[in-house]
Design a protein that fits this description.
Largest sheet: none
Structural class: mainly alpha
Shape: globular
Number of helices: 6
Number of domains: 1
Distance between the termini: 47 Å
Number of strands: 0
Helix content: over 70%
Oligomer: single chain
Strand content: under 5%
């Protein structure tokens, strides 16, 4: 399964910069409990987990999604900690 046969560049940019909005308003919504917890708490990680089936055709894209997911989540946690400690 190839990512770009199912989705386009605009969808990819939306997932990168606005993961909650893109997931909410796209056809990716699955509605399971873990999906909604991921959407609410760690949307970047949810995007990375949803990218795993594309590993065979786009390993670079999946790797980058995990780098962005980990970096985005760590950055958000640091920002929240800095805001609550100030």
């Amino acid at each position: 399964m190839d990512f770009f046969t199912d989705h386009g560049w605009l969808f990819l940019l939306g997932l990168t910069f606005f993961p909650r909005l893109t997931l909410l308003f796209s056809s990716v919504v699955s509605g399971g409990l873990f999906w909604w917890l991921g959407w609410l708490l760690t949307p970047h990680l949810l995007v990375a987990v949803l990218a795993i089936p594309y590993w065979d055709t786009n390993p670079f894209l999946v790797s980058i999604s995990w780098v962005i997911a980990l970096d985005g989540t760590i950055t958000e946690v640091k920002a929240v900690n800095n805001h609550t400690n100030s």
